[in-house]
Amino acid sequence: MDHRLIVRAKDLTFGYRKGEKALRNVSFELNQGRYLVILGHNGSGKSTLARILTGLLPLQGGELELFGEVPTKENGASLTRRIGIVFQNPDNQFVASSVEEDIAFGLENLALPREEMVRKVREAAKMVGMEEFLNKAPENLSGGQKQRVALAGVLAMEPDLLILDEATSMLDPKGKREVYKAIDGLRQTHPSLSLISITHDVEEALHADRVIVLSDGLKAMDGTPDEIFSKKEELKRLRLYPPFVYRLSSALKKLGIDIVPEGDLERSLSPLWR
Amino acid sequence: MSADLLGRYVPYGSFVHKMDPRAKIAALIALMVALFLGYANYSMSFVMAGLCLVLFMALAFISHTSFLSILSSMKSLWFMALVLLIVYCLIPRSAGGTLAFYIGSLPIYYESILDALRILVRLFLMIELTMILTATTKPLDLTFALEWYMKPLGYIGFPSQEIAMTISLALRFIPTILEDVERIMRAQESRGVDFKHGKISTRIRAFVSLLVPIFVSSIMRSEELADAMGARGYDPRGERTRYKVLTFRWVDALELLFCLAFMGGCIAISVTAFDLFGLFGLTVL
Amino acid sequence: MAVIVFDQVCFTYSPKSPFHSDALKGVDLSFSSTDFLALVGHTGSGKSTIIEHLNALLVPTSGEVRIGEYISSSNKKRRSKKLGYLRRKVGLVFQFSENQLFEDTLIKDVMFGPRNFGDSPEAAHLKAVEALGEVGLPEEYYERSPFELSGGERRRAAIAGVLAVGPKLLVLDEPTSGLDPEGAREMMDLFKKIHERGTGIVLVTHDMDIVLGYAKKVAVVDNGKIAMTGTPAEVFSKDLKPYGLEKPLVYQTIDILNAHGYSLSYQYENLDDLAKAIKEGKKQ
After folding, report:
1. Which candidate from C94, C97, C102 shows the least CB-CB separation from B209?
2. Least C-beta-crowded within 10 Å: which of A136, A152, B102, C174?
C-alpha cells in the first residue's frame, strides 16, 4: 500500500480568545490508509483540531500540510474538498428534506451533472446501508440512520481523508453499532481512505492504528492502542480509563493469566479456552 | 400539538398530491382569479362562488384534506367578518342602494351587507384552496416551484437561489425546532411553569422561559449547520446544480388546462355580464 | 414511603389522525419512591413516554398511574386535582437538560422552580444555594450567566434547578449522554449520593454499564410494555437480544466464556473477582 503522507501538522496552536489556548503545539502525521483516533475529555481541544484540518478555523500558529501541500488562499478549497467530516449532532448536519437530496447536497455544490449525482448518491447510500431509505424525511429516521446519511453525503464526494468529530457520541448503542459497521465496511472496500476519529470513547480507540490523547490543548500521549492503554496511571491522570478488555487483562495478569486485548472481545478472550 | 397544525402536509397519494407543484401553483392562481372576478350582480356572484365551493370541496374530498381543519380556519374569520361588516356599512355608498334599516341615524344598505358577505365567502374559499395546496404539497416542493418561477429574476441579479435555500432550510428545521419547543415546554412545566393559566406577568415569564432556550438552541443549531454546509463545499454564490428535478407530466398539463378552462369560463361569464336569472326575468339583487 | 403504580397504562400520540401512534400498550409497573430504578429499552420502546407519566405531563389514554396518593387516570372523575403538589414531589430532568436554562444568572435560574411553586425569594435562594452545593457548583458561579458555563456545568445547573424544588422522586432521562467517561462517572456518583439521602431515582439510560454499577432494580421496556423486571444481575443474565439491548461488557465476557465451556455465574462485584473465577474455571 502507498503510504503517502496525508496530514503533517507541526506545532498547531489555536486560541478562540486572546490569552487562552484551545490547542498548544500539537504535532502529528497521518499516512494514507491509516486510522487515527484522537482521544480526550470534553474541552481538550479535539474539535478545534478537526476544525483547523477542515479549514473551518484558520491556522493561527504552526505548520500544516495536507496531501503534501501547504494550504493557501488559492488551493485551500481544493485541498479541503478532499477532506470529509461528519459532526456530532445528527440533526444539525441534515441539510435537505429527504435522504437522497441530503446525500446529493455536496455533489450539487460541486455542480455535477444530474446523471452523475444520481449514480453517486445511490453508491454512497449503499455503502452505508441506506439505499432503501432514499425518499425518507429526516423526522422519520433514527439518530444512527441520520448519521449514516451524513456519512454517505461525505462519501459521495469521494474524500481521501474522513474525519469523524464525535460522530457517535449522541447515538444510542444500536446507532453506534450501525455507524461503526458502516465504517468497518468502508475500510475494507476503500483501503486507501485515511480516517481520523475524534472521540472520548476508549472502546472505539481499540480499533485504531494509532491513538493520540489530547489534554487541555496539549498532546499528552501518542502511540498504538496497546502502548496507550497499558499506561493505566497516566490515563487516569488524563481523566480517561483503559477499555474494558485492558482492565480485565490487568486483573487476569495479577493471577498469572495472559490475554491479548484487541478490538474484538471474543478474540481477546480466546487464549482462555485454547 | 404539531399534528393539529393548520395546513400541514399530510402524506396521501391522491392525484392532487401527485400534481407537479409548479402546475399546482399556476392552477391555484387560475382558480383564485375565477373566485375574485366581478359578476353581473350579487345573485350571479353567489352562484359562481357556489360553483367554486363545489369544485373546491370535491378537491378537498379527493385529497383527504380534513374538512374539520378547514372549518376551524373559519374560527379566526369571525373577527374578520365583524370588522368587514362594520367597514362596509361605514363606507358611504356613492352609488346609492336599497335601504335596509337604520342604526341610530346611520343608514344601512342591503348592498353593504351583501358586499361584506361576498368578500367573506371569497376569503373563506381562498383559505380553503390554500389549505388544500399546503396539505397536498411538501413544503420543499413548493419552495422548489417558487424558485423555478423566480428563475428569470436571477438574470437581473435577484438572489433567487439563496432565498430558496434559506426557505428550504427553514422548512427543514421546523419539525426539529417544534420538537425543541415541546421538550423545553415539558422541562419548564416540570419546574412548575404553567403556560396556560395565571396572570399576564407570570404568563410572560413562562413565555420567556421557553423563548430564551429555543433562541439559544436555534442559534447553536444554525452555527453547526453552517459548519456542516461549509464542510460540504456550499458557496452561496457558487455555481450549483440540482439533484431534484420536477417532471412535468401530461396529466399535470391536463389538470392545469382544466383549471385554466374553468378560469376562462368564469372570465367569459364575467365580461359578458351574463345573468342566469335575467334569462328568466328573475333579477332579485 | 410512597408507591408508584402503573396500572394497564396505554398512551397514544395524536389519536385519530394520520400521525396516530401507540406509544404505550398496557404498562404494568410498580416501584417505591426509595428505589433506584433503571428503565432500559431501545429507542422508541416507550421509556420516555413512561417517565412523562410520572409527573402527569402525559395522562394515560386508558388505565391509570398512581404516584402515592396522586391519581393520573384516563377516567376524569378519578383524576387528582393537585397537579402542583405532584410536580413538586416528582422532579424530571430531561435529556440535554442544559438547554432549559434561561435566566441571566445561575442562581436566579436555580431559584426559578421554587419560585414557581410559591416560595418566597429568601426561601428559594436558600434552596438554590443548597442544590448548587449538592451538584458541586461553587459560589463564585452564582452571579454568572449560565451560558458562560461549560456543557457539563450547565447540565449540573439544570439538575440543581430541579433539585431545588425538593423532589422525593428524581426522574432522569439520559443524564450522562454527551459527557466524557469521567464526567459521566461524576454525574452518576452525584445521583448515588442523592439516592442514599433518601430520594428515589428513576433513570433512563442506554449505558448498561451504568445500570449495572448504580441501579438496584431494572425494568426492560419493549414495544410499549414492560418486558421484564428484576435486579440488574437477574435481568442481565437473561437473553436481551430480543429487546435490542446489549449486555454490560462483564456479562458479555461471561456469556462468551460460558459458550466455550466455562460455567461462570452472573454475580461478580468487580473484575478481580471475575478474574479469580476465570482462573478457577480454567483449571477444570
Report:
1. C102
2. B102
